[in-house]
Design goal:
single chain, alpha/beta, DHBP synthase, 2 domains, globular, binds threonylcarbamoyladenylate, binds magnesium ion
Length: 312
């Protein structure tokens, strides 16, 4: 299949929407990472996402909506949802809530779970597509399952060229790491860290937020231990460099690429996946990474690096 390269002019967006209406796959820009979108109410279209990514069927997808009202059609709203979405939508926060009865969301997208993960992205191109499509879009990150996520169309095309119908170029993702996921089906608990920090969520809710612990009972079905993985081995918390390694630095260090010379965690998150793609493309055996402070957005960066360092 030929993958059509689209920009974000009105006619390009109309084209993308018509492909989605026909049950096709379109990679779309979001503020976090690129998403691989399909009509969330079309079982066959959603199945194509799993096939293109090589994603296990037990790993549910995030449903993207154009506004809160659309979200309320598919999930049972509660007070915490009201507070968090008022504060953080549109933006990089996904909430998990019980599905509404007779929801039109395809069961394949939910991996047959009784809950749904849902978010309203803030990227203007994603929002315009959602407005014109006027239906929810299922969209996991636009990469092969388990591999590095995509923050530009180059990254998407590297893995998914000719496997999807189209790609909409909306520039580089500004956040750079996936949305924060909070489940509200129980005591609010962070399932995946992201740009919106645990402190920000706690402050909004006026209560300390629990953190999902991999060792505890399984409440985040798709949280694969090994993920975001480059071909190279990753050596984390490197305080010295070894010969032959590619060096991914942070702060005032000599290295091949620097996530942020000025030690900005926001800048480091923006650069993370792009720099991993670039360093990995020269096929080194190892990429070593400077220590990243484990606070704020650093929690998300370290989570992604840790999963990326685990070999399957
Ligand atoms: O920023 C993002 O969230 C990006 C952009 C494209 O929106 N999407 C993204 O999707 O990161 P994906 O598929 O790579 O990650 C979705 C995560 C998985 O870990 C999955 O297990 C979890 O969301 N998830 C989906 N539905 C869930 C549910 N009902 N309960 C718990 N976790 C769920
Ligand atoms: Mg992903």
């Amino acid at each position: 299949m030929k993958t059509e390269n689209l920009g974000y002019s009105q006619s390009d967006i109309e084209k993308a929407v018509s492909i989605l209406r026909l049950g096709g796959l379109v990679a779309i820009p979001t503020e976090t990472v690129y998403g691989l979108a399909a009509d969330a109410t079309n079982d066959e279209a959603v199945s194509k996402i799993f096939k293109a990514k090589g994603r296990p069927a037990f790993n549910p997808l995030i449903i993207h909506v154009k506004n809160i009202k659309m979200a309320q059609q598919y999930v049972q709203w509660n007070e915490a949802a009201e507070i968090l979405t008022k504060k953080f939508w549109p933006g990089p926060l996904t909430i998990v809530l019980p599905s509404t009865k007779n929801s039109q969301i395809a069961e394949t997208a939910r991996a047959n779970l009784p809950s749904v993960a849902i978010r309203m992205p803030s990227h203007p191109v994603a929002l315009e597509i959602l407005r014109q499509f006027n239906r929810p879009l299922a969209a996991p990150s636009a990469n092969l399952s388990g591999k590095i996520s995509s923050t530009s169309i180059d990254h998407v095309l590297k893995n998914l060229n000719q496997k999807i119908d189209a790609i909409v170029d909306g520039g580089n993702s500004t956040v750079g790491v996936e949305s924060t996921i909070v489940t509200l089906t129980r005591v609010p608990t962070i399932l995946r860290t992201g740009f919106i920090t645990p402190e920000a969520v706690s402050n909004a809710l006026g209560a300390k937020i629990a953190n999902y612990d991999n060792e505890g009972p399984i409440i985040a079905p798709g949280q694969l231990k090994s993920h975001y993985a480059p071909k190279a081995k990753l050596r984390l918390d490197a305080i010295d460099w070894k010969q032959g390694e590619k060096k991914l630095g942070f702060g005032d260090v000599e290295c091949d690429m620097n996530l942020s010379k000025g030690k900005s965690l926001t800048e480091a998150a923006q650069n993370l996946f792009n720099f991993l793609h670039i360093l990995d493309s020269s096929n080194p055996r190892t990429i070593s990474v400077s220590p990243i402070p484990n606070e704020g957005i650093g929690l998300a960066i370290n989570d992604r690096l840790k999963r990326a360092s685990i070999q399957e």
